[in-house]
Amino acid sequence: MTSSKVIPRTENRWRHDPGQPLLAIDEPPPYAAINPDGISPYLLLCEHASNRIPRALGDLGLPAAERLRHIAWDIGVSALSQYLSRTLDAPLFMTNYSRLVIDCNRPLDAPSAIPDISEATEIPGNIDLSAPEREQRIKTLFTPYANAIARRLDLLQSQGKRPIVIGIHSFTPVYLGRQRPWHAGILYGAAAGFGQTLIRELRGEGDLTIGDNEPYTIHPDEDYTVPVHADARGLDGALIEVRHDLIDTLAGVDAWGDRLTRCLLAASKEHG
Ligand SMILES: [Zn+2]
Questions:
Q1: CATH top-level class for 30-271?
Q2: For residue 95, what is the enclosing H or E element?
């Protein structure tokens, strides 16, 4: 799985001249701002909403089956995030391109920001990127999204508000052959009090196995949203990770949207 064929750059249909724009004029912008004036204390963020790849990068050298898998996006989270944006009346910033192009929840110096490999799949279109190719992905996709969120938080904080930053994610039930036991997990960094409240609320639903900093932990070397947008500002914040087979239908999104709305409303009464 880890051997790579050396293909002359000129023959790689997924390579792009960084002197030309990465996004064509008829492609979606890097991110969507949904319900930007929502009055909820929650600011919802969704970095892994889409598996779209800019046309200029072709298929990144991946077969269709790989581009539909969880390595390209978080299955179900686009709908779940939009559901919560409506029920909570919360602003939502959501990326329009795959994390395989650039992962907007990774520090730029993390190897996984533009991954050569994800789970056990090599990403041919990301191997041996030139500095200009890398820079173009950052400038086109990462920076506009990160700046839009920072500006929104600056504005809210200048108004004396204390927004609560929530990232919405999903995880695969089986990772590298290992079954995971959780229905959902809450990941937090400095805001342990808020994280614990949300975990207590979800466990209070009575029928769920909820991970406490599982299936992942937050680390400033590997995460961007919570360390930068919440912890560095002294704001409450967490990532919600839902097992993706629970939200891959509209009925599942409805059920989890209702659950999470209940739990988030209860948590904001204590921390809002
Ligand atoms: Zn994710």
A1: alpha beta
A2: strand 92-95
